[in-house]
User: Fold these one by one.
Assistant:
Number 1:
Amino acid sequence: MHAILFVGDVVGSAGRRVAQAMLGPMRDELDADFVVVNGENASGGIGINPKHADELFRAGADVITLGNHTYRHREIWPYLEQRREIVRPANFLPTQPGRGTATVERGGVTLGVVNLAGNLYMPQAAPALLTADDALKEVAHADLVLVDMHAEATSEKVALGWYLDGKVAAVVGTHTHVPTADARVLPGGTAYITDVGMTGARGGVIGVRREQSISTMRTHMPQRYEPSEEDPWINAVLVRCSDQGRATAIEQILRPLA
Ligand SMILES: [Fe+2]
Ligand SMILES: [Fe+2]
């Protein structure tokens, strides 16, 4: 039996504080072999810089996945080429730095991680379901495979879950920052959830200070968005897997910063 802890989008300093405080103890408590963290909002709520990526690795992330905000901070561009344990969506263009898959090993077990981005309401990328075939070949040797599908549309995530059922241990959705209530193991043995949610301030609007978000929606005038600090939570899932690399259970973990 193996277990993977997957942590939804870490947003701003509140999210980083949660990661710092909770990843280590939760890894022990839940007996997780691997910790995978979506870090696309770690720095100032948009994107991630090398300092904060290093911080998430030190906090216990084995792999960091990203999404539509990958390239916000320029300093991360070369970092994505250098560091193999951080991935951006595999269906981004070849002109965009970084890799879409990673493999890590812990105690003799290997985990392959694939990051994909949806095609609806997202920057242009190759079709996610088509790229999934090639990306899976890159991690075919791994004992367990987890796919982070970073997408706005629920339909694309559900479709990918069915498409990969029986082929990978888990398909987890990210990006909307709101956890969905549909976590389950599909019949072929793939753990699935449409959105894991956000690790950050629940007192904001999907991570942004609520008064700023509300004001923009009321006035339709642009303004600076800052990450909220209020009421930090972790939103994650724990996927338990057999030695054959199939999921046996998926458990949603939603907890306030202890
Ligand atoms: Fe996000
Ligand atoms: Fe996103």
Number 2:
Amino acid sequence: MKFKASIAATLLLVTPAFAETLSPQMMDAAMVALLGNPKVSKTLDDLKADDTRSLEEQKRITEIPAPPFKEKVRAEYYLKRMQELGFKDASIDSEGNVIALRKGTAGGRPKLVVSAHLDTVFPEGVDVTVKEKDGVINAPGIGDDSRGLAALLSLIKAMNENGVATVGDLLVVATVGEEELGNLRGVKALFRDHADIDGFISIDGLGISRVVNQSTGSHRYEMIFKGPGGHSFQEFGLPSAIHAMGRAIARISDLQTPAEPRTTFTVGTVRGGTSVNAIAAEARMAVDMRSNSTEELLKLEEKLLALVKQAVMEENARWNTDKMTVEINLIGDRPAGIVEMDSPIVQATQRAVSAIARGPRVTFAGSSTDSNIAMSLGIPAVTIGGGGEGGNWHSRNEWYKPTDAWMGPQNALLTVLMLSGLDGVTKPALAVRQAGK
Ligand SMILES: [Zn+2]
């Protein structure tokens, strides 16, 4: 849906005093009111002017390594920056997340989280030095999620310097454990420790026109095939761990999954065997399954696990033995979920993107991000882009180009103000959740 400036701002005046949420017309009017507000215009201008400084910040953050479970040094830097930007009480919680509360004028609710993630996929020792050539910046993690972290700091800076007062509270968070084996541990802890969160925004991804309102659920397994092992010639006749795994992979390869809701699988890594002339005693593989629907994910999982067990039975049957076994370990578990298109958080994001980008349509997608946990708890959540363009995510050749990068923090500002309300100007579009809901 396109933002229509023609819709009368007077509609805002008929907003019922205790409206739970705003109607689409009221949200259009609220956006008109925000865009017409001098303080908001000034803040939007400041965010654009902050572009170069923000890019420098992004590079600095990138050069502080943040491997999974080892985000501490980067977290401490981020804490210091938050404190310098005015959050004297910012702190690091028990899980390692950096947290600051930016109080609104209504005494707390609705409480909106604005976040980005600290961790990268890169292990210790990977060279994270930023390299630049012809306007393209290369470094592992430069976009994912250093851009989100820098955009978040830029947002805070501009809001604090302009004294932008929201109605609801903002909880500004840099999370740990978003990637891979971190299994969203940071955001899980956040929701465990804060029962009063009404909405959640993650800035993770580039550009601004792609918005994530579906969380792709994933289940990941490590499967370890074990057999007796032996010499390839003398002990021929024993079952092989590699052969058993091969049978399993062949069967998995032929699995069919729906295109909608998107459901996928892959055997991501394989390892095993000790030498060319030995019947393998052990082989292991890691399997990734994803879906935007929990139901489809569970269906796929059931089928896939059955195929693995069947492959072991076949390998045993082939050699008339029972010596081949498989150990199946769940190593990743992320819930699936969806935030409906008519939800205020999706509606607010749509309007903010249209107001800032004035061209490209918003596309909505499913992904696996920090928002998964909020969505699985029924808490409205979106993941929005931090601005700029890039590619080769999760690879050492990751690149970033700061094209219209300031649009990231600008989009975040308008989305936050729509949801939290601007004191004296607009009401929060985000509803206060009832206890236990
Ligand atoms: Zn990310």
